[in-house]
Amino acid sequence: MEIKLAESPIWKRSAIIWFLFAALQFWGAGYYSSFFSLIAGITAAIVGWRFLTRMPDQTYLTLQDETLTIHLRKISLGKKRIRYSDINKGEVIGKQIILYLKNGRTVPLRNDWLSYDDLSKIKKESILKIISQNGFFTFFN
């Protein structure tokens, strides 16, 4: 099951910031006759357009039979695959789901990037698999 990013004001705010940066770069390109500023402005406008139009269509998580795949992370290092058997426990604290792995590492997932329906699906699907294989899941709000 694929979980997409939710419609969120954060994507619109990010797009506005990128558009403002693009406008500043275009102004700099005209004022200083700088080719670099023109390229930076075009790039910023494209990134802003992507935030505005495509972010809700991006896949955030994929829940499969044996693994949880995280597609979008803070630093784009590719997908992170976690086997359910590697998860020791998990907690929902505020705006994050924190998965504690057996090797001592933690993996945070952002609740505010998920819609309410998708969050309930994740709690139902993956948490039942984690509980049945390993241990427990706790919820704090």
Kindly describe this structure.
It is built from three helices and eight strands; from the N terminus they run βααββββββαβ. The chain is of the alpha+beta class and 141 residues long. The chain folds into two domains: 2-56, no CATH class; 58-140, PH-domain like (Roll). The strands form two sheets. Strands 1-2-3-4 form a four-stranded antiparallel beta sheet, with helices on one face. A four-stranded mixed beta sheet has the order 7-6-5-8, covered by helices on one side. α1 (9-32) packs antiparallel against α2. The mean pLDDT is 81.
Summarize this structure briefly.
The protein has 141 residues and is of the alpha+beta class. The protein has 3 helices and 8 strands. The chain folds into 2 domains: 2-56, no CATH class; 58-140, PH-domain like (Roll), CATH 2.30.29.
Structural class comes to alpha+beta
Q: Rough shape? A: elongated
How big is the Rg?
19 Å
Q: What strand line-up does the widest sheet have?
A: 1-2-3-4
Whole-number tally of structural domains = 2
Q: Which CATH top level class of the largest domain fits? A: Mainly Beta
Topology as a string of helices (H) and strands (E): EHHEEEEEEHE
Q: How far do the termini sit from each other?
A: 26 Å
CATH architecture of the largest domain: Roll
* Number of DSSP-assigned strands: 8
Strand content: 25-35%
Q: Note the main sheet.
A: 4 strands, antiparallel
Which stretches are poorly predicted, pLDDT < 50 over at least 5 residues? none
Helix content: 40-55%
Number of helices: 3
Give the averaged pLDDT, no decimals. Answer: 81
Might you state the CATH topology name of the largest domain?
Answer: PH-domain like
